[in-house]
Amino acid sequence: MTNRSSITVFRGASKYVLDEEMAQIINVSIALEMPLLLKGEPGTGKTMLAHAIAESLGMPLIVLNVKSNMKLVDALYQYDTLTRLNDSRFGDSKRDVSNIEEYIRMGKIGQAFVSGTKTVLLIDEIDKADTDFQDDMLDVLDQMEFDIIEIDKTVGAKHRPVIIITSNAKKDLSDPFLGRCNFHHIAFPDAEMMRRIITVHFPELNADVVDACIQTFYRLRKIENIEKKPATRELINWIRALRADPDFKPSGLKRGEVPYLGVLFKKSPDLKLATHAVGQTRH
């Protein structure tokens, strides 16, 4: 087992507020060299956490965005047959067309394996993939190697990456998959945690403005039948919009006036519901 004392401990990053429970599971995952599976509703900062870990540890970040039709081999490597065919046909390339290895391109997992430095590998939205993809991927990550069939070569990881896997919990992951990861559920921030987050992003913001924005934000999230509730990202962008408005006053929010609803709600039915709810509040 890796010596814990040799591991750089993650304590948060410049724009990421960390609680103690999350810090513990991140650091034990790094120490045990186990993938960390993060679940939570969209907008709770799962992807952002991987960026924060890479920033804090001074490591490059490699991101694999999982698609529903993705095959594992696409995440490992691609054999560029089209370029090889063109090189063979036109004969104006410096590549040796008889050497297939010159036409092998590493996928995101492959890039993490061949990197000369330790990386953070983010596997984003794993729940989009089928069960076979999930389980086969963890086999590769356990063994830290994979085969390139076309050239009969095994690629082993030069450095074991720090592996962060995210899921929006849209469908269940297999028991074998869950058993091979550490797990943390990122709950949506409560008002006090959100205040800390906003203070990190806007340290000079007046306390009255922060209070008015947070109270309005959580009130809007409670509107019934909203499909995509505004998340932290939307709140931060909404505050930026308010700050850019020379006529904005927090007293307006307290009276139920909520400008720039389109920054908070990104779907037409949601925006319609929010506009109606705000109109009722004002009257």
Topology:
Layout: H1 20-32, E1 36-39, H2 46-57, E2 61-65, H3 72-76, E3 77-79, H4 81-90, E4 104-106, H5 108-114, E5 120-124, H6 131-143, E6 145-148, E7 153-156, E8 162-167, H7 175-179, E9 182-185, H8 191-201, H9 207-221, H10 232-244, H11 250-254, H12 261-264, H13 268-282
Helix pairs in contact: 8-9
Helix content: 40-55%
The Rg value, from CA coordinates, equals 23 Å
The shape, in one word, is: elongated
First CA to last CA: what distance?
64 Å
CATH architecture of the largest domain: 3-Layer(aba) Sandwich
Q: Any idea what the CATH superfamily of the largest domain is called?
A: P-loop containing nucleotide triphosphate hydrolases
| CATH fold-level topology of the largest domain | Rossmann fold
Order of SSEs: HEHEHEHEHEHEEEHEHHHHHH
Number of helices: 13
Under the CATH scheme, which class of the largest domain? Answer: Alpha Beta
Query: What's the mean pLDDT score?
Result: 90
Strand content: 5-15%
Question: Low-confidence parts, pLDDT < 50 over ≥5 residues?
Answer: 1-6
What does this 3D model show about the protein?
This protein is α/β, with parallel strands linked by helices and 283 residues long. It has two domains: 4-185, Rossmann fold, CATH 3.40.50; 191-282. 45% of the residues lie in helices and 13% in strands. The protein has 13 helices and nine strands. A five-stranded parallel beta sheet has the order 2-5-8-1-9, with helices on both faces. Helix 8 packs across helix 9. The longest helix is centred in the last third of the chain and has 15 residues, at 207-221. Mean pLDDT is 90; it is low at 1-6.
